[in-house]
Amino acid sequence: MIEIAGMQMEDLAEVAAIEKSIFSQPWSENGFAASLQSKDTLYLTARLDGKIAGYCGFLQSFDEADITNVAVKESCRRRGVAETMLAELIKRGAARGVTAFTLEVRRSNAGAIALYEKLGFVNCDIRRNFYEKPAEDAVIMWKR
Ligand SMILES: CC(C)(COP(=O)(O)OP(=O)(O)OC[C@H]1O[C@@H](n2cnc3c(N)ncnc32)[C@H](O)[C@@H]1OP(=O)(O)O)[C@@H](O)C(=O)NCCC(=O)NCCS
Prior knowledge:
- The protein has 144 residues and is an alpha+beta fold.
- It has a single domain, classed as Gcn5-related N-acetyltransferase (GNAT) (Aminopeptidase, 3-Layer(aba) Sandwich), CATH 3.40.630.30.
- The chain is 31% helix and 40% strand.
- It contains 4 helices and 7 strands.
- The protein has a 7-stranded mixed β-sheet, sandwiched between helices.
- The radius of gyration is 14 Å and the shape is globular.
- Bound molecules: coenzyme A.
- Residues 22, 70-72, 77-83, 105, 109, 111-112, 114-115, 118 line the site of coenzyme A.
C-alpha cells in the first residue's frame, strides 16, 4: 500500500539520499530543509512498506504552484507511486487555493512527460537549454 504524508524534517536524510541517487544536480538536505520551513511550499512523501519510495512538492505563489520536485526510487517505479503522490499534491494544492500547476521537465524524459499528461498537464512551451549536466531543453507543462 502507498502511504502519502507531509514531508517531515526527520525524512530529509532519506529524501536527500534518493535525490542524490537520481539527479546530476541534486537538492541538498539543507535545500529541502529550507523549503520545508516556508509556508509557501507543500512537500509530500510516499511510503511503500514503511520506507520512503518517493517525494514531490511545490512552491506556491498566489493561485499558482510550481512543482519543483518529483522523484521515485528506481526500485519502486511503475507501481503508481508518482501518480498517487502527485494526485494528492494537486488535491491538497487545490484546497489551499491553487488553480494552476506548472512544472519543467527534460525534453527527453518521455516517462515523466507521459506521467504528467496522464494527470492532465499539457505541453505549453519549450525553454531552450534550461538544464545543465547535460544541457537540454525544458518542456514547460501546465495543468489549469
Ligand atoms: C518519472 C517518475 C517520477 C515516475 O514515477 P513512477 O512511480 O514510476 O510512476 P507511476 O508508476 O506512478 O506511473 C504512472 C503513469 O505514468 C506513466 N509513466 C511513468 N513512468 C513511465 C515510463 N518510464 N515510461 C512510460 N510511461 C511512464 C505511465 O502512464 C504510468 O502508468 P502505467 O504504469 O499504468 O503505464 C520516476 O520514473 C522517476 O523518479 N524518474 C527519475 C526522476 C524524474 O525524472 N523526475 C521527474 C523530473 S521532472
